[in-house]
Records
---
Amino acid sequence: MKPGLFDSSILASTQQAVEFVSNILESSTEYSVIGKDLDGKILLWNEGARRMYGYDAEEVVGKLNSEILHIPEDVAAGKPRAVMEAALRDGKWEGVLGRIRKDARRISAVFHLYLPAAQGARQETTPQPSSSQLQGHGERVLYVDDEEPLVFLMTRMLTKVGYKVTGCTQPKAALESFRSAPNDFDVVVSDLSMPQMSGIDLAREVLQIRPGMPILIASGYIHPADNEKVRSLGLPDLLLKPDTIEALAQHLYNIFAKSQASASGEQPAGNSKVRGQAASSS
């Protein structure tokens, strides 16, 4: 514990420090705070976690693995491990995750995982566009998902990074919005599995209205057969959801950079010149 973060009187004893931090955690009823070890074993569970997930601390602390809070599709796809590895590499992971309560009800939550970055964990990778280059420049996104909390969160997050977002929880309503003004959108981002109409069916209808429209389809579980279907429409492979806003911003960046490069005869590149041209053309 860093002494500079607390008054010295609080650190007079370990017990006092523990009680002080415990009181803060217990008073944070609007936020779920969960501590776990690297294997996922739950070590800390505050009142906010109890309210969100329905488990009492006595049921989970030291007894259950945090994978019980992840939706089964994410567990099968290795999402919890991938998130942990990213946090170990970068020191943190932030994004939207599908979660499951004790009563089996599914929810979406903004998730923040913080860990000390492992020494020497960073490896040389292909240079990626900087965060400033991944900023939107007013491009218009039609975001479609039947989970209202996820639509609300992603609309806010994409807006913060510079996009103009229209969020829809009903694919048929989204299709009608697109049909009435197909040139009012620059990209469609849709969930795969939705009532009324799947993301693939929505994409097919959108492409009939406006051929070549950029479309991204996301799914909590990616099946090879579904990827074949989206490829048959000339679309990129399915995205694994829920994912970080940075990952989605990267995909959007790639779409607009590729689109502009194709129009100008240039090669897509991780530079602001191409990105700026894409923005000015919208």
Note: The two ends are 50 Å apart (CA to CA).
---
Amino acid sequence: MFAVCAVAFMCLMSVSHSAPMACEKLVQPLNRLEPHKFQGKWALIADSLNNTASMEALRRRDSITLYFSNSSGDSTFSFTQINRFGDLCQYLRYNVSVQHNTFNFDVQDHSYLTGSFLYTSCPDCVVMQWSLKSRSRTTSLLLLSRRREVGQKEMEEFREQLRCYQLPTPVVMDPTKDLCPEQSDRRPTAEPESNSPNSPSFHNWNIQIL
């Protein structure tokens, strides 16, 4: 009986120690950003935020595309977010500065938006953690990929990262929905929601919150 209890105790100790170690790895920002690896087109696969209104706004989007393009050197980038609402596309562009393993968005209001890239075992994915400081703090974790959908193992790893951050079940985008085309014109095709920081829709998905 003592031997059985001892084995059970050791198993419990093993689980209790392995879980924090797993989170320590999953929430670890990349030590050094290599900006050229992140350039180009990314499709949003899944996202979760600690803001209910933002989650509802995210569900209203059919697809979201993100583009990173180098502006000057390795410290300044252009970031384009393209939201599809049915047949309409909304183009939002921002300047991004990189410092060590953190990037800062110029959102030109009273908000402060920062982000970092986290660990992922997916070879053609990135996981981004964004934090928006305004009247309150909103945290978002995004899974992006060069593909339109990822495998079950890759999605489960992302869900585990969300649990580490204590974020809700993610919104998973429908891979059958079309992405909007990249557009050079700076004028949005559609402006279905206000960008004002005082409007409810400002705190939608990520930068708006995205």
Note: Confidence is low (pLDDT under 50) at residues 1-21, 186-207.
---
Amino acid sequence: MSTKDLEASMRKSLEATQRNFNTIRTGRANSSLLDRISVEYYGADTPLKSLATLSTPDSQTIQIQPFDISGLAAIEKAIAMSELGFTPNNDGKVIRINVPPLTEERRKEFCKMASKYAEEGKVALRNLRRDAIDKVKKQEKDGDFSEDQSRDEQDSVQKVLDKFIVELEKQLADKEAAILKV
């Protein structure tokens, strides 16, 4: 595995972690909070984004405008049943969700959740490193690399990992700062 391939794989892993971070509430309303909500619509689980337009008219409100008004009740039910703890307000045409300010206790819970997502991201990055190093060792064993070349490749793989871990730590720090900001 070349360093560029490894970096591309690690970049994808980092982006997945960032998407997880985006689903964690901060003090502001954000339509990405609803990314993981699936609505049972005509017997099939459908992502909310496929059924409605999501917008944030102000910092404390998320507005959901369904493409098909008949799905309004199903969307409302899915949001109410989600783990987000939001109470949707249905006016017959749109659903509005008031995002209340976070309590200190809730902020700490979300920081723990962000740390958990970051740790999962680190594990994914380490797994990619392990796979890359295993390939290098196999190439050394097959005679494609000398021992010195193998060690150099392993060092470069480790440097790539270190770079991405630092980036992930920065993302975590930014997310925690956003969560704790009152």
Note: The chain has five helices and six strands.
